[in-house]
Amino acid sequence: MAWTKQRLNNLFFVVGVAACVVMLFTFDVSFVELWEHLCHAGYWLLPIVGVWVVIYAVNAWSWYTIILSKTRGTGEKVSFMRVFRLTITGYALNYATPVGGLGGEPYRIMELSKDVSRQHATSSVILYAMMHFFAHFWFWFSSIFIYLALAAVGDLPINTTIATLLAIVIVFCLLAFAIFARGYRKGLVVKTLRWIGHIPGLKGWSARFREKHRESLDNIDRQIAALHADDKRAFYRSLLLEYLSRIIQSSEVFFMLLLFGIDNGGGCAGLLITYLHSILIVSFTTLFANLIGFLPMQLGVQEGGFVLSIAALGLSAALGIFVSIICRVREIIWIAVGMLLMRLPDK
User: Fold this and answer.
1) Hey, how many other C-beta atoms are within 10 angstroms of the C-beta on 293?
2) pLDDT tens sequence across 296-321
3) What distance in Å separates the CA atoms of residue 318 and residue 185, rounded to the nearest whole number?
4) Total Cβ atoms within 10 A of residue 118
């Protein structure tokens, strides 16, 4: 078993390293232009990259809250720093694989199983993944009202087309809220496997897997449902932390807007509006990227999202290209950090 886990660990490591190489050679600009962009960023690159230490710490805190809730009274223990490390590495793998989660979540389950039971590891990772996406929908939903508030004071445009798009996003989010509510009440694993069974060629595998692991799958679903039913404080704390991480993530774009001298007149009011613009840029870009999330590392999708969202706020396309390139550099740096953490021995 240990040998198999080591082979899987090596496989995940190779995937991550390959992702870094692919990303380096798939920039839409030459290395000369890339270097010019990096020189333009200058010392601002430090807070742009460094703020992700805080973001990942908040993500880890959200996941750690779920783990503590699941393992309370069992005698199973895992340190926050261990969860922090797995958070960084898991996200590094998610950046590297199509449909983010095909790499990061299995890796987290495999590694966390060294500290807690397999069922607790699986349920906590699934619950955290659900919470991560659930917070995304709340972020997108609240961003609509930020846009409407800025439009009401004349800062942003509002017309029939924009109002229609905002209405579609509202319906999309409300539908997602209903699906998540059902998943948190009754679990999600068995239902997902049944859905996979409708995919051509996977019906037999899905049926055999459900039959072989019926008891474990039912237990995992019960644990998923139990978080909201039995420990609402942990549920809402985890959700709030995940939502907060999106707000902090907007600092990355905020720093780049300030780098270009965009501060809406400066002062507290100007900086607040600039930060709200940053939230809207991140919100639109992540919505766009997640809708087309089957591409490895979301190549081209994230870049297009940044350019479109920044242009929608009346800013230059050149700024959108700069933001997308610097964010791609940041991703490469953090994938490399995640891969290095993967090779460190467990304490």
Assistant:
1) 15
2) 444 555 666 666 777 667 777 677 77
3) 46
4) 13
